[in-house]
TrEMBL record:
This is NAD(P)H-dependent oxidoreductase. It comes from Flavobacterium cupriresistens. The keyword Oxidoreductase applies. It is an enzyme of class 1 (oxidoreductase). Residues 7-128 form the NADPH-dependent FMN reductase-like domain.
Length: 180
């Protein structure tokens, strides 16, 4: 058996213990033991994107973020939708990756968990295609009405959502094992 693959998980919400964080926690607890999920919780520490600072020596927080992506075998992003778009902090972090190849051919899973989420999910797909991340229909999930599908402890109370998340996890694992 080979060594465990690291999956970097990014919550698009900066709220502590958000529903998106709870979903990532669920994934980390239900993914195959071949993988270790490391949830990135420093999104708010990444400075505002500034092309003048996007040089050989970007800000330390940006370099650390890029390094985590680069060294991870795969990335899962779980985000809410804010005003029909991505949260600014997530979009900001992704903007710091545009001038790099850290996401090029990186296997990613994309989850939007929000009240509606359709527009935010479309934008997430477009950004991730632009930075050449690898994903497909089976490694994406839109969870609408998320507030009514989790209890306060983060347990998934909606059976369809539970089944869809488990299916997402299996599909992501399958993608991670292909072409390695």
């Amino acid at each position: 058996m080979g060594e465990q693959k690291i999956i970097m998980a990014i919550s698009g919400s900066t709220r502590k213990n958000s529903n998106n964080f709870k979903i990532l926690k669920f994934i980390s607890e239900n993914i195959s033991s071949d993988f270790t999920v490391e949830i990135f919780e420093d999104l708010e520490r990444i400075p505002h994107f500034n092309p003048d600072l996007d040089t050989e020596n970007p800000p330390e927080e940006v370099q650390a973020f890029r390094n985590k992506i680069e060294t991870a075998s795969g990335v899962i992003i779980c985000t809410p939708e804010y005003v029909f778009s991505l949260p600014g902090s997530l979009k900001n972090a992704l903007e710091w990756c545009v001038s790099t190849t850290v996401f090029s051919n990186k296997k990613v899973g994309l989850i939007t968990a929000s009240a509606s989420g359709e527009k935010g999910h479309e934008q997430l797909e477009l950004i991730m295609k632009t930075i050449e991340a690898k994903f497909n229909e089976e490694t994406q999930l839109l969870i609408q009405g998320i507030r009514g599908k989790l209890d306060l402890d983060g347990n998934i109370t909606d059976e369809k959502t539970l089944l869809n998340l488990l299916k997402f996890i299996r599909n992501f694992e399958k993608q991670m094992k292909e072409f390695n």
